Amino acid sequence: MRYLRGKVLAMVLAGAAAGPAMAGQTSASVEWLLPTAKTHAVQTHAQDEAGKQSGRPLPTPEFLQPTLDAALPSFKPSHDAGLKGSISMAASDTLPGLVGAWIHAFHKFYPDVRISFGPPYEGSHGAMELANGKIDIAFVSRELKPTDITAFGARHGYPPLSVPVSGGSYRQFGFLDAVVFFVNPQNPVERLSLAQLDAVLSRSLLRGKHAAVTWGDLGAGGAWAARPIHVYAIKPWNGFEEFVRQRVLDVGAQRGHWRTDLHYDPTVFPIARRVAADPDGIGYAGLAFVDAPVKMLAIGSDGHYLAPTYANVASAAYPLSRLIYANVNLKPSTAMTPPMREFLRFVLSRQGQQIVLDQAVFLPLRGFQAESAGALLGAPAHGDRS
Fold first, then answer.
1. 3-class DSSP state for residue 265?
2. pTM of the model
3. End-to-end C-alpha distance for the chain, whole angstroms
4. So which residues are the signal peptide here (predicted)?
């Protein structure tokens, strides 16, 4: 069996239940091994259509599972069980099972809240229906497309509100796997900061560094110092590409822009193989798409670097861990309807995240993530006791 090798200076967590505050920097290198993923085929049109009607078939559950974070709040209803109202929802094709389980559990608290949820299951469709005012919540297993946000803003005069409701998966194909950067195994570089990655990828350079065009610009010495950096990236627009742009190239409200001299592929599928074949290569992909022997990089900032181990991703300490979002239409300075706010409060609670854990595909939010997401829900409506 082939393995991905990553000898990195990393912050090692005590376990998957640990949070960022528990991390401590090691004094020695840590070598870890990860089997290469199988090479996956692009989903066919027939599979796409079947997913829109029934949802994508769930993968084999992860063997490893984190402990549910004790800091997650327990759900306590803010209204009596007679709360009435309605919520309409849509979701990506990876999410019908999870959203359906949330709905079933929520009805035990509020049996008189009517919830409509059904096919088609497709993220862009949900975003369009949200913009058109036909649904209240669009669950999407990626960041919204810039065109989705623009279309919504043109209609409403403000952007949609995106509330994190779950982590992504670790390395499940098609289920929002964590994003990793990697180099050829011959390359001496073992870790890069977000600012260094921005210098490699961006023409905007919002993180303040000069463009990096040789490996010496990234700290490599000797014969490597003058060698050119060959970047293998994904052509916009793409879910992986948008995620990397937001986490690496963007700073605050400023949107970063890719360099024009990168080697672009239309999809993520060939990136790892290209880097494995090019000693000067660097690329990024979801963990499920790393199907060739490459060296994984630790990523960080302020001198702290984290490898994409299961514990680091499950604890949300790794900076390129992903999130699933509930996108809603909430005009600034207004309150959500009580049924919608109660539903999202439930999803962000210990009970809601236990459902994520029970499905064993996606990773539940950590307490600090749920707290930040809960703050996005805004003030309760008049009469809400929460």
1. strand
2. 0.90
3. 54
4. 1-23
Q: Is the torsion defined by CA of 290, 299, 191, 31 positive or negative?
A: negative
DSSP strand pairing (179-183 vs 295-296): antiparallel
Q: Cβ distance 69 to 151 under 8 Å?
A: no
CA dihedral 300, 306, 312, 316 (to 10 degrees): -10
Q: Which residues of the chain have pLDDT under 70?
A: 1-34, 382-386
The CA distance from 254 to 263, in Å, is 24
SS3 label, residue 206: coil
Q: What is the set of domains in the chain, with CATH numbers?
A: 63-169+322-375 (3.40.190.10), 179-307 (3.40.190.10)
Pairing of strands 281-286, 230-234: parallel
User: What is the dihedral angle through the alpha carbons of 320, 323, 325, 331, rounded to the nearest 10 degrees?
Assistant: -40
Q: For residue 156, count CB atoms less than 10 angstroms from its CB and return exposed for 0-12, middle for 13-18, buried for 19 or more.
A: middle
Sign of CA dihedral 270, 272, 277, 283: positive
